[in-house]
Design a protein that fits this description.
- The protein is an alpha+beta fold and 385 residues long.
- The chain has 9 helices and 20 strands.
- It has helices at 5-8, 91-115, 139-154, 166-171, 230-251, 258-290, 307-318, 347-358, 377-384, and strands at residues 3-4, 14-26, 29-34, 36-37, 51-55, 58-68, 71-76, 83-89, 119-124, 129-133, 159-162, 186-189, 193-196, 211-219, 222-229, 298-301, 324-331, 335-342, 361-364, 368-373.
- The strands form 5 sheets. Strands 2-3-7-6-5-8 form a 6-stranded antiparallel barrel. Strands 16-17-18-20-19 form a 5-stranded mixed β-sheet, sandwiched between helices.
- Helix 2 crosses helix 3 (139-154), helix 5 crosses helix 6 and helix 6 packs parallel to helix 7.
- It binds zinc ion.
- Residues 44, 101, 105, 197, 199 line the site of zinc ion.
């Protein structure tokens, strides 16, 4: 079995070991077995470490690590000769993951002790950590949880990991998803949480820096929470700060006021749209008034009109023509919505001919129909001319 150096020292970045075997793993990959390793294999919701292994002048990238009955296998992009090797894990990545994982234990521990929640799901990605609890929590409770979690961080409490004897284990009250009784690794956050976990953690809660619950939703009778801690939380803050700063500058409002600034802007936009629709409606009805009376058809195009306006235009236009009055709104690219009316033509019967010639669909009463036509304006005008 491979000796788990990360179990003894979670802050070990570089180590030396002996390569016991190196086998091809297909697709240009190799599977390397070491006598000891600082590479954490995927487990407990935490992804596997990546990094490099070196023998003499030859270095290979470690792309994955997995625990097997044989030991911990390192998936690499090249082979190395059996014998002494040096290993180096991608430390920034590992430390960020430990910050998030230890942060998750604090949040889950507090959710358990304060609100009786059980953690029923945990996923750690590059930019987000997701945890599921089996009970719903209110926004106020989540804020309380976040505040309490950060107090634990600031108190810089000690985090330890050990394999207690089965007899000792039996007396322990700890959180666990598994029913194991042997080789159970217990991670203890002083005065906050005791939990079975195989992953490396920071040694003191202060290393986590900050814990932020970024989003939440009801999920399967409980709650799903998105959180960030440490470096991930800083990146999240930087991205959001850049975004808020840009909105603040664009709207000329102070940063904490941007939400109200956007609300005001939305109201201005709604008022403007309302006024614009009114103006378009007035313009279209002036156009209808200005049209000479005709025995033939009347065709009117006006962009951005609603269905009611189209209908009232057609009602006015029907009085001026002996044929069909057709009003269209839309564009050549997106197609047109229409309303057609007539005092003389049975439009319900006529619509089949119109749709056969121009495409589209629609229906209604003999005196008035509505629908859509995907044809170009020039084709439509030529048809009704
Ligand atoms: Zn864990």
């Amino acid at each position: 079995m491979t000796e788990k150096l990360y179990d003894i020292d979670s802050h070990l970045r570089d180590f030396s070991a002996v390569l016991l075997s190196c086998r091809p793993a297909g697709e240009g990959r190799w599977s390397l077995l070491l006598d000891r390793t600082a590479f954490f294999p995927e487990g407990g919701g935490q992804p596997a470490d990546t990094g490099t292994l070196t023998a003499g002048e030859t270095a290979v990238r470690v792309l994955d690590a997995q625990e097997t009955p044989e030991g911990i296998l390192h998936l690499t992009d090249g082979p190395l000769p059996d014998g002494p090797v040096k290993g180096s894990i991608d430390w920034e990545q590992r430390f960020g993951r430990m910050q998030c994982h230890s942060g998750e234990h604090i949040v889950s521990g507090l959710a358990h002790s304060r609100f009786g929640c059980t953690n029923v799901g945990f996923h750690m990605g590059e930019d987000e950590v997701i945890l599921d609890f089996d009970r719903e929590l209110t926004a106020e409770q989540l804020r309380e949880l976040e505040d309490a979690a950060n107090r634990i961080v600031w108190e810089d409490r000690t985090i330890t990991a050990e394999y207690p004897d089965p007899a000792v284990l039996e007396t322990l009250d700890y959180r666990s998803k598994l029913d194991l009784t042997e080789n159970v690794r217990i991670v203890t956050i002083e005065g906050c949480d005791v939990c079975a976990c195989c992953a490396p953690h920071v040694s003191h809660t202060g290393e986590i820096g900050v814990i932020k619950l970024t989003s939440w939703m009801r999920h399967r009778g409980g709650v799903r929470i998105w959180m960030a801690a440490g470096a991930m939380a800083l990146r999240d803050y930087q991205r959001k700060h850049d975004s808020v700063a840009a909105i603040s500058a664009a709207l000329s409002v102070k940063q904490p006021e941007v939400a109200r600034g956007v609300e005001r802007l939305k109201q201005v936009l709604a008022d403007t749209e309302y006024a614009l629709t009114g103006a378009k409606r007035a313009l279209a009805s002036e156009k209808i008034k200005a049209m000479p009376e005709t025995d033939g058809n009347l065709c009117l195009f006006e962009d951005g009109l609603d269905q009611n306006t189209l209908r009232s235009l057609v009602n006015a236009g029907m009085e001026k023509c002996g044929g069909i009055c057709a009003a269209f709104t839309g564009s050549d690219e997106g197609g047109y919505r229409y309303v057609m009316g007539s005092r003389t033509v049975d439009l319900r019967a006529e619509s089949e001919t119109i749709h056969a010639a121009l495409g589209g669909k629609g229906g209604g009463q003999p005196a008035m129909i509505q629908g859509s036509i995907p044809a170009k304006r020039a084709e439509i005008e030529a048809y009704f001319a």
